[in-house]
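Data availability (excerpt). The following record was deposited with the supplementary files.
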Amino acid sequence: MLEKLKKLFFELYQENNNLSEQEILQLQKYLSKIITLKDIMEVAVKNDFLPVIKCFVESGYSPYFVIENKIAGFKETRNILNIAAEENSLNIIKYLLGNNIFIADQRASQESITPFHSAIENGNIEAAELLLKKGADINAEYFWHNNSYSILLCLLICKCNTYGLEIAKFLIKHGVNIPDNIRALCSSIEAQKYHSNNIVEDFLLSVKKLDDLYNNFINGYKTASSEIQEAYCTRTGIDLTDLKEKSKSLNHSTISDVNAESESINMLGATVDNQTNFTSLYI
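Predicted structure:
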């Protein structure tokens, strides 16, 4: 089976790349060093070579093997869905989930990160969106160096510095929970050690501030008399019916939930400075 998969990989790589004779020789040398099925599967997933994966699975082999890496002295375990998410290998993600081979939040071990975490860590919004559509939990525990954190920690470390703000906007748009300890998370040893991203920090702290302001406003509205509610809405021009509906559903909602539903509260395209103007609508 190993040689069959290596041959298939070689053919697919040649089809997808215009290789020189020297590059063909280098590819052959590279493949000759692959001695396990796990290794050829990993490299096939990284290249989104679906025929290799299908051949492996349809031949009766188990795709649930664990791939281990050591990062800064800590062992990290992943499965092939993690790797597909890391590499934005959309064809393989669709195959594994569409055929119920994996579930969207399947971890390699109890304290491994989810495939959605892998996509976010590597800035792969397409893979992240696909996983969300298939049921991934945006607020699943994120494990880093054997400790559990909010997924937002991965935005504060060096991997995400080049695209962290776009990922932060994506997560906010889809209703990620911003924990009450977000400020402590931003200043944590982990975030500082890996060169914390100040732009992302400012963005998350600003959105959290708006969350708190909005929740306080709605809670105040809910406890006011109907006469006061009506007078306030008349004074501000806010739609009373719409506001009552929002106050009913506030229990676990945040401003980021409302953003997804209402253009009038959409601040995802704005700068951090402009976002604070939103509070003038409600205080």
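Summary of structural features: The first strand starts at residue 67 and ends at 71.
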